[in-house]
Write a structure and sequence with these properties.
Layout lengths: L10 E2 L7 E2 L2 E2 L3 H24 L1 H8 L5 E4 L8 H8 L12 H9 L4 E9 L3 E8 L2 E5 L3 E4 L4 E2 L12 E3 L5 H16 L5 E6 L5 E5 L3 E6 L3 H13 L9 E5 L5 E6 L5 E4 L2
Parallel strand pairs: 4-6, 7-10, 10-11, 13-14
Antiparallel strand pairs: 1-2, 2-3, 5-6, 7-8, 8-9, 11-12, 12-13, 14-15, 15-16
């Protein structure tokens, strides 16, 4: 029986050769497999080389972190304090350097509100510290920031000029807001509120120019202080030279005490 072959248009056929269409082999799989085999072998060879030389390669890439880059200026924390806080972390390999640990260590400092720590290849770390801003003393040994939060530095001697605020627990924001209102009121009269205290019974007591203690009571505090300022502005400056305390808890008068005499009343309507 004779065999027949069907040859499609565009196909070529010759005895002992592969069939192709448009001069392209119909079965390219052997060539693709060969290329894939070469790629796999190459990857395997690279992997073996990496494993054999892993320590040497990582040692070259992960150099010890020995340099500190300061990205902003600090007012209340010194470079020596920072070095002391992060000293145990320095010298670690670049990839092993504990960024989170350094951040937590820095933020444990009472003057550091927030710390940003960034590694810079091959051997450096960059620090950016946001410091607390003290606006007043709080109680015996704490400071108050602009958010009404307290913090406790080792020393506050260099901040003696800040006002002294105090009050029951969790009243920091209330006292701070009252201080701002009262201080603005007296500032216009050329007086400085050097301290403000809120007692456990809600009584407000302030001190003016580190000299005159003013008791304003619990109610209508700003109205009473305004009445006192009206009276103060009508007196000669020398009239208050010896006054050590003023009591405003009267409906139609002001009681003042001099360091040279007993309590005396002054009518004020």
């Amino acid at each position: 029986m004779r065999s027949t072959r069907t040859v499609t248009q565009g196909s070529t056929f010759s005895a002992g050769k592969r069939i192709s269409v448009g001069n392209q082999p119909l079965n390219p799989k052997p060539k693709i497999r060969f290329k894939l085999g070469v790629i796999v072998i190459s990857f395997c060879a690279c992997g073996v080389l990496l494993l054999q030389n892993f320590e040497s390669i990582t040692g070259q890439l992960s150099r010890p972190v020995t340099k500190v880059k300061i990205e902003n200026q600090w007012q209340s924390i010194s470079e020596s304090e920072v070095q002391s806080l992060i000293g145990s972390y320095m010298g670690s390999g670049f990839f092993d350097f504990d960024v989170q640990g350094v951040r937590q260590e820095l933020e444990s400092h009472p003057w550091v509100r927030r710390a940003a720590v960034k590694k810079i290849w091959p051997d450096s770390v960059a620090l950016q510290l946001t410091e607390e801003v003290a606006i007043a003393h709080w109680g015996e040994d704490q400071l108050l920031n602009q958010y009404g939060e307290t913090f406790k530095p080792v020393t506050t001697e260099h901040l003696a000029s800040l006002p002294r605020l105090s009050g029951p627990e969790a009243t920091q924001v209330k006292v701070m807001e009252q201080y701002r209102a009262v201080n603005q009121l007296f500032f216009q009269a050329g007086l400085r509120v050097s301290s403000l205290n809120l007692s456990a019974r809600g009584n407000w007591v302030l001190e003016l120019n580190d000299q005159i203690e003013v008791t304003a009571g619990r109610e209508a505090v700003l109205n009473r202080l305004t009445r006192f300022l009206d009276f103060y502005s009508q007196q000669p400056e020398s009239a208050f030279a010896d006054i050590v305390s003023v009591d405003l808890r009267y409906d139609n008068g002001i009681a003042m005490k001099s360091d040279r005499q007993d309590l005396s009343g002054v009518a004020s309507r």
